[in-house]
């Protein structure tokens, strides 16, 4: 399940780049879950800054926001896993969930173990 906040839909990729300060690996997510629900379902999280995002795409083409690879939570807060996990990109200051995407490895997470975060992309497509 993938989801984007209306702030992202209205303001585009810069909403994520300029306001996302953390990504959380959550055990489950349903459309429009609150920030408090995301925090309660967190298995692991890392802090982000605007420099952890890049926007690419030539003039006149689709634009792609890419998150930095190599972020790591040295110690997961909780155990969980399977197909229901998601990455939730959040603005903790505004208590907003900005963007949610699937975690596709299905890997099990164990409390206390390190969790590596992959580079992920969000595309804003050119209209057709």
Task: Please write out the topology.
Elements: E1 3-4, H1 6-11, H2 13-19, E2 22-26, H3 35-40, E3 42-47, E4 53-56, E5 63-67, E6 71-73, E7 86-91, E8 96-102, E9 115-117, E10 121-124
Antiparallel strand pairs: 1-8, 2-3, 2-7, 4-5, 5-10, 6-9, 7-8
Report on this structure.
Helices cover 15% and strands 35% of the residues. It contains three helices and ten strands. It has helices at residues 6-11, 13-19, 35-40; strands at residues 3-4, 22-26, 42-47, 53-56, 63-67, 71-73, 86-91, 96-102, 115-117, 121-124. The strands form three sheets. The chain has a five-stranded antiparallel β-sheet. The chain has a three-stranded antiparallel β-sheet with strand order 4-5-10, with no helix packed on it. It has a two-stranded antiparallel ribbon with strand order 6-9. Strand 7 and strand 8 form a beta hairpin. The mean pLDDT is 94.
Q: Work out the radius of gyration.
A: 14 Å
Structural class: alpha+beta
- Let me know the largest β-sheet: 5 strands, antiparallel
Task: Please state how the strands of the largest beta sheet are arranged side by side.
Answer: 1-8-7-2-3
Shape: globular
Distance between the termini: 24 Å
Low-pLDDT segments, ≥5 res: none
Number of strands: 10
The proportion of strand residues reads 35-45%
Please, what is the average pLDDT? Answer: 94
